[in-house]
Amino acid sequence: MSKLSYFGETHRLLRDTVSRFVEREVLPHIDDWEEAESFPRELYLKAGAAGLLGIGYPEALGGSEGDIFQKLVFTEEIMRAGSGGLTAGLGSLDIALPPIVHFGSDELKQRVVPAVLRGEKIAALAITEPNAGSDVAGIQTRAVKEGDFYRVNGAKTFITSGCRADFYTVAVRTGDKGYGGVSLLMIEKDTPGFTVSKKLKKMGWWASDTAELSFQDCMVPVENLIGVENQGFVAIMNNFQNERLSLALMANGTSQLALEACLEYVQDRKAFGKPLSGFQVTRHKLADMATQLEASKEFTYRVAAKMDNGESVIKEVSMAKNFATDVSDKLTYEAVQLFGGMGYMRESLVERLYRDNRILSIGGGTREIMNEIISKQLGF
Amino acid sequence: MKILVAVKRVIDYNVKARVKADNSDVDLTNVKMAINPFCEIAVEEAVRLKEKGVASEIVAVSIGPKACQEQIRTALALGADRGIQIETEASPNSLSVAKLLKAVVDEEKPDLVLLGKQSIDSDNNQTGQMLAALAGYPQGTFASEVNVEDGSAKVTREIDGGLQTVELKLPAIVTTDLRLNEPRYASLPNIMKAKRKPLAVKTPAELGVEISSTLTTVKVEPPAERQGGIKVGSVEELVEKLKNEAKVI
Fold this sequence. Notes:
The complex is a heterodimer of chains A (380) and B (249).
Chain A: H1 9-26, H2 30-36, H3 42-49, H4 68-79, H5 84-90, H6 93-103, H7 106-117, E1 123-126, E2 142-146, E3 149-160, E4 167-173, E5 182-188, E6 194-199, E7 210-221, E8 225-226, H8 232-268, E9 270-271, E10 274-275, H9 280-308, H10 314-339, H11 349-357, H12 367-377
Parallel strand pairs in A: 1-4
Antiparallel strand pairs in A: 2-3, 3-7, 4-5, 5-8, 6-7, 9-10
Helix pairs in contact in A: 1-4, 4-8, 6-7, 6-8, 8-9, 8-10, 8-11, 9-10, 10-11, 10-12
Chain B: E1 2-6, E2 9-11, E3 33-35, H1 37-51, E4 57-64, H2 69-78, E5 82-87, H3 94-108, E6 112-116, H4 127-135, E7 139-149, E8 152-159, E9 162-169, E10 172-176, H5 188-195, E11 199-202, H6 235-244
Parallel strand pairs in B: 1-4, 1-6, 4-5, 5-11, 6-10, 7-10
Antiparallel strand pairs in B: 2-3, 7-8, 8-9
Helix pairs in contact in B: 2-5, 3-4
């Protein structure tokens, strides 16, 4: 490994493991799973057994510790299955568990985390509501303390793994208006008053299930409070750093696959008597695409290295997400264009990449919210 | 009981191999390399024997340049206990490999040597058999099942007519076929542990073996590109075309 590389021997071996997992367990089925708009629950168990879900989590909770670049290797390789939905669905634990791991009681941690890391249970994060998305401080789902329970009323939407999760990390309002009145509750499937009201149909990410959740006088035990009452906002914001890095990686992964598909296609596809690669306009387009992706990857790695070093990267990770999704917007568009009519067909990977990509500059904070964060850090 | 497993560094089975422009060899520049799949099956079998309490130590050995330490580390991450690299820049033929392994067998005195039946790059299917002859050990090749008990190994072999079971008195040589097992994934904790496992480096000279080359590669060519097929309307037409166009019947 080069001295300049962020990756060492451990990362190489881990990359081999994840890439084998994708080759054996995912690639033979992914087209069917996309069309079926779901993947088998068994895949969580297989990933858990291979130790893939525990990367980055404490050993005491069944994880395998590990640095940010190990997690990054996992995301990069899972993305090579060519399905953002699969990455999001299999990875929903990574947005649901961190608040519990960092702020939850020992009892709560032991009850939730090990079973999820083994792949036996599924975890989901529920923050967005029909009337509050990026504006997290504006959530309305209410939790009123009554003795040993919180009475929860409200609705959540666009929840990844929302249909079949067992544990939900839910943002609720326990206090006054604004960010100072937000708490996080762990709500279990089958709690009376909690129902999955709808499985949502989406533009992309077909393989992941996305749900609308409803809480009607849902009684949640007080011991399910994650951390301190009315201090959930900070936990949610901390959580966003990792999610944004992961979305930047997904964007780069999408770009990588789009570029690779183009590089192969332009050598095979002939027009006017020569392969597309024989046209200077094609070669220059590909050179431009490759350059942008290279810059995005290096930037994202740099931000990851700073995070690994414990530095605060609120500004940089927002920039990386915007940069990576700008690049993936452009590359997926150009890839479909290069493929022509074939790029519009579902049998082409670039067709799926184009659809799957669209969410990346929306989820985990929109491009506009990222720009708000960046401009605040610039002093405005 | 000690098991010696041989692992070879080869081009990854998912990579589309390309031939160098001068036709001298397969182009390995910037190509993903991996442990030979049959060798990986051999490692897995050794690890299973250790998990059953049959084996107590697994030694993984590889022959090649420094880079082949990567494949030894993979074997260690899968569960082998220590590694030996025999460092050489030459690409030894099967007999030289077998001689080097024989020297390791003399040093290590394993009760069982597990090897892949062949490597997916050169596809010779010779090393295990040659090693058995040099060491004077019984051999069970193309194993689809291995049972070790009371100083002997029962090996079910995949042969043309079906399955054949042979009983070998240990120490013995076993080469693995595809259906023996499905190798596990190296998990992150095991990868971390592998980093601390010992890996010794030796040279052919230290083992008293001279790598001699009896073969020269004259030319490497890619297989002919596959042509598109045709649809035939009837069995008669098919037979006619097989006879007169394809000339295969």
